[in-house]
Amino acid sequence: MGQMMSHKEVLRAQIMERLMAGKIDQREASQRLAVCVRQVKRIVKRYRTAGLPGLVSQKRGAPSNRRLDAATRQAAIETIEAHYPDFGPTLACEKLRECHDITLSVESTRQLMIAAGLWKPRKGTTARPHPLRERRARRGEMIQIDGSPHDWFEGRSERCTLLVFIDDATGQLMQLRFVAQETTLAYMQTLHDHILAHGIPVALYSDKHSVFRVNMKDADPDAETQFSRAARTLGIECIHANSPQAKGRVERANQTLQDRLVKEMRLAGINDMEAANAWLPEYIADYNRRFQVEARKGQDAHLPWSGSKEALKRILSVQVAKTLSSNLSCQHQGQLFQVQSSGSGLALRGAQVILHHHIDGAQEIRWRNRTLSTTVMSKAVRQAEEADSKTVNQRVDHALKARNAKGKGHKPAANHPWRKSALGKSATKGSCVTQ
Hints:
The chain has 4 domains: about 5-55; about 70-115; about 140-290, Ribonuclease H-like superfamily/Ribonuclease H (Nucleotidyltransferase, domain 5), CATH 3.30.420.10; about 315-380, no CATH class. The longest helix has 21 residues, at about 250-270. The protein is about 40% helix and about 15% strand. It contains 13 helices and 12 strands. Residues about 425-435 have low confidence and may be disordered.
């Protein structure tokens, strides 16, 4: 035979030999070959006529009937090279179908991109496997939260961080927000929007970032951060993961977003955080349509917020305890807060008040559940004159000369103990000479 027989064809040859020898009948042969009896009769006919070569598939070496036509292949490759050269096969396949009316399977797109040198097959991972944790049963039982620093705008704007809130039960993106840095107020703003849109979740699952947890070695076990205090007030349980793998759902979402979201913003012409935050709700809806799954239980575990927006805003603020001075003022971070009182203000002297820093940048002072009227003034802070590497040595040398000059010509004050002692000795010596 000119061609090697496949395992399937060798099996057919063995079955045909047993069938010809009368050891099995055509029904048993059809069961072993997983074909119908009529197909067995055709195989027997070819085997009697041509022998073993008759068992070799006649389609071997011929092009597939389901192959892509050359025009479609060329159009797909040219489109990917022109618009999506750094896209993965899955995302490129979606864009070909949605934007260019070219319908391919993901695997066909992958093979085309490999042949064109636009995609390199990934090698198998050797990472240590981690035990899987079953998803929570209901939407809103646990929200995984994390910040993802990245060059989201590919150099078109400053690097920033994307805050991600994802539901554990459904994999649904609940909130996305671009911020300059991971800060307490940034997370409070995102939680504020989440509560107004969906309600209060049962638990938040995060890492051990200092926003969520007091990490000092000798800290009080009951010590709280501003964020954990706000969550406790709202009745939300805060859970801290021991490793990134433990909160794998939000970590995998970060990887997906760093690939897909970056490219979607490039195609949409979005170049800064303000425009991105305005566009994100549209992207969240599309992402959830593609990737969210059904929860095992249909009930939503979120509790609706029944209070006012102002009350929620005050809970989700950075709160600092202050004591008013006798003139009804206090200081914080270079600012002087002066309380305005219509009366004498005796009750406010030495009063313990709470300074609120709100998510919108506003500040207020509260005392006994009421807001005090205040004016804010900036305190002037004296700072040393700046020096660069070219002038610092010159300034040090000048300071040394000034110190040496001061030491040589320095005279103690008239009432200095050393001066009095010296004058006393001089007077005694003079009296001796006079005698």
